[in-house]
Specification:
It is a single chain. The chain is about 35% helix and about 20% strand. By secondary structure, it is α/β, with parallel strands linked by helices. It has a 6-stranded mixed β-sheet. Helix 1 (about 45-50) packs across helix 2 (about 55-65) and helix 3 runs parallel beside helix 6 (about 170-175). Residues about 1-25 have low confidence and may be disordered.
Length: about 210
């Protein structure tokens, strides 16, 4: 999925991930979670997940305030323990990994701009809530349109999107193994980045100010 507009490259990657959890007899129950995260399966509820891992469902909801309990997205990742990395930490880790790769190529690190991050987070949330996977949002239009709508000016911009990856390292591996996405990450003209994550959707927005 590649799009070229002027000199700006937009690339998207969709990796499907399937899992099957039977919520009846035979499901293993735990006195406490053996790990910090859980990947949502079809039919899951906070109540069932809490019961399976010996948790209070109200505490589970508190740990995942951005997750709609009435519309849990299959494939999204939720925190089971307070020690689990927050969404903000997920986003910061993606930026760190981007700058590690740029350093290897002799490029300047990108600044994680709060204004661009805000747009990337809204795009990730929009992809989940409006059930689509595309660079063009039915609500905000293209990434160009979206950046301008939120008052961000730029000389050049690009976007990487992904869906279904469970960690910053996993999504970065996916992007780096795709030539188009890698080209955006290692493009020397960009000096700013915004990363958004929401319920399994990942967005990188690159800008040259």
């Amino acid at each position: 999925m590649k799009k070229l507009a002027s000199l700006l490259l937009f690339c998207g990657l969709f990796l499907f991930s399937f899992s099957d959890t039977t919520h009846g007899q035979g499901v293993t129950m735990y006195k406490e979670p053996p790990f910090e995260y859980y990947k949502v399966s079809k039919g899951d509820t906070f109540w069932f997940i809490a019961k399976r891992y010996g948790l209070d469902y109200r505490e589970l909801m508190r740990l995942n305030p951005t997750v709609d309990p009435l519309n849990m997205q299959v494939g999204s990742t939720i925190r089971l323990k307070g020690s689990g990395t927050s969404v903000a930490s997920f986003e910061e880790e993606v930026v760190r990994l981007v700058n590690v790769e740029r350093q290897k190529s002799g490029l300047r690190p990108l600044l994680h701009r709060a204004d661009v991050k805000n747009v990337a987070e809204k795009k990730a949330m929009d992809m989940i809530n409006s059930n689509y996977f595309s660079h063009t949002s039915p609500n905000y239009g293209s990434p160009f349109d979206m950046l301008k709508t939120f008052g961000i000016s730029y000389r050049a911009a690009a976007e990487n999107i992904a869906k279904g990856q469970r960690s910053p390292q996993e999504v970065m591996n996916s992007w780096l193994n795709s030539s188009g996405h890698r080209a955006n990450i290692l493009n020397g003209q960009y000096n700013g980045i915004g990363v958004g994550y929401y319920n399994g959707a990942w967005v990188q927005m690159f800008v040259q100010s």
